[in-house]
Design a protein that fits this description.
0% strand
């Protein structure tokens, strides 16, 4: 599952860089803003992936423990 997420993330970063280059070439603020937002979403995707991965590992480990009350 990590490979597709990384491929999507690399594509988002490449698109972000392309938007920012176009923004500089055409001197448009909106393209720079769009590139920044795409880069932030790529970073957010990676952060959420690793946070959810560690959360699911923690929940799986908790469910594997057997609790004895006596």
């Amino acid at each position: 599952m990590l490979v597709p997420i990384l491929i999507i993330d690399v594509a988002l970063v490449a698109w972000s860089l392309h938007l920012m280059q176009e923004a500089i070439a055409h001197r448009e603020f909106s393209l720079m803003l769009a590139g920044t937002l795409v880069a932030i979403s790529a970073a957010g995707l990676v952060v959420v992936y690793f946070l959810m991965g560690s959360c699911l590992v923690h929940l799986t480990q908790m469910s594997n423990h057997s609790y004895s009350y006596f």
